[in-house]
Design a protein that fits this description.
Layout lengths: L11 E7 L5 E7 L6 E7 L3 E3 L5 E3 L2 H11 L7 H17 L4 E3 H15 L1 H11 L5 H23 L18 H14 L2
Parallel strand pairs: 4-6
Antiparallel strand pairs: 1-2, 2-3, 4-5
Length: 190
């Protein structure tokens, strides 16, 4: 590493630390020639391969801009979008791949976006999962409802599973509950 002050081609690492978000390493270096110190930031390169086959560096701002359109008119703050973009980048880096297809980035966005805002999730999913009909929306909505029901049941009974004391699960108390349970089962198989 060249010293930025005297251009000496050698330097000594004095200290190394992870950056706040864990995506980079900050190194404090000292030049043996002039004795001055400087900081370098090292990151691994992450390329996104576009439909045209051209690669470009991963950009959190592009993730934010794409998701911002889906979140238009929704109660989602800029901080929420920044956190989502960070989570997406962390998920991509955790895969260990140096290159990723742009379409895969869109699919990776879906998980954190679903947790953030379900309406924005549906808007975004309609593009990246290529919804072609109302049935595609209906099945996605049914799946979201089913997941919400499961989450609500788990939250209502912490420390227990959804089965009753006999281990067979709780039976619907009346015809309305039974019909609702049958509808949820039918929709989740779409």
């Amino acid at each position: 590493m060249y010293c930025p002050f005297c251009r000496n081609p050698d330097s000594r690492v004095v200290d190394s630390r992870m950056a706040d978000d864990g995506s980079a390493i900050r190194r404090r270096r000292q030049c043996p020639e002039c004795g001055r110190r400087f900081t370098t930031v090292e990151t691994t390169s992450l390329s996104v391969i576009k439909r045209s086959g051209v690669g470009e560096p991963f950009s959190r701002s592009k993730v934010i801009n794409g998701v911002r359109k889906a979140c238009q008119g929704r109660p989602v703050s800029e901080d929420d979008l920044a956190m989502l973009a960070q989570e997406v980048e962390e998920n991509i880096r955790a895969s260990g791949a140096a290159e990723i297809d742009a379409h895969e980035v869109g699919l990776i966005i879906l998980g954190p976006l679903q947790k953030l805002d379900k309406v924005a999730y549906l808007r975004f999913a309609s593009v990246y999962q290529a919804f072609e009909s109302l049935e595609d929306f209906e099945s996605a909505i049914a799946l979201l409802r089913h997941e919400s029901d499961v989450d609500a049941k788990e939250a209502a009974a912490p420390g227990t599973d959804s089965k009753g004391s006999d281990g067979k699960g709780s039976e619907p108390k009346n015809t309305v509950e039974k019909n609702a349970a049958e509808k949820n089962t039918a929709k989740s198989t779409l």
